[in-house]
Amino acid sequence: MILIVASNPKLSHIWARHLRRNGEDALVLSTQNEAVSFLRNCTADAIVLDLMLEEGSAFAIADFASYRQPDAKIVFVTRDTFFSDGSLFTHIPNAAAILQEQTPPNDLAAIVSYHGRAS
Predict the structure, then answer these.
(1) For domain 2-118, which CATH number applies: 3.30.365.10, 3.40.50.2300, 3.40.50.11190, 1.10.240.10?
(2) What number of helices (H) and strands (E) belong to the chain?
(3) Model confidence over 94-105: pLDDT tens digits?
(4) Which DSSP category does 31 fall into?
(5) Which residues pair with 99 in a beta bridge?
(6) How deeply is 16 buried, as exposed, middle or buried, from its count of CB atoms within 10 A (0-12, 13-18, 19+)?
(7) Is 48 within 8 Å of 112 (Cβ atoms)?
(8) What is the pLDDT of residues 17-47, one digit of tens each?
(9) Residue 91 — pLDDT band, cuts 50, 70, 90?
């Protein structure tokens, strides 16, 4: 299962559609509360996580996931360049990649599928 937590529903559904074309199960959520509730009860192979989440904190989700599901790889997506130096990898132990929001959906799906299989 690939969990997508993002504020932009149109974009997150495009990502989910591309992941499903790759044979993945994908679930789209939009808030910290929804994501934490899911991670308490279900297993994710990988998480696509919007760093600029509007409702809640991406870091809180990542922290909870690293505690509750340390094998779930997190692929962060951002429209900012703040973590372009790679410092995010020192803070989030299961961070696997940081992608720009404009990354083509096929590329994002391939990266997420790869990390989901590796977990």
Answers:
(1) 3.40.50.2300
(2) 5, 5
(3) 999 999 999 999
(4) B
(5) 77
(6) buried
(7) yes
(8) 999 999 999 999 999 999 999 999 999 999 9
(9) confident
SS3 63: helix
At residue 18, the 3 state secondary structure works out as: helix
Residue 21 one-letter amino acid: R
DSSP H helices, 56-104, are 58-68, 88-91
- What's the pLDDT at 81? 64
18 token code pair: 């591309």
* This prediction's pTM: 0.92
The span from the first CA to the last CA of the chain, in angstroms, equals 11
The pLDDT mean for the chain works out to 91
pLDDT at 88: 75
Distance (Å, rounded) from C-alpha 14 to C-alpha 39?
Answer: 22
Q: Cα-Cα-Cα-Cα dihedral of 6, 7, 10, 12, to 10°?
A: 0
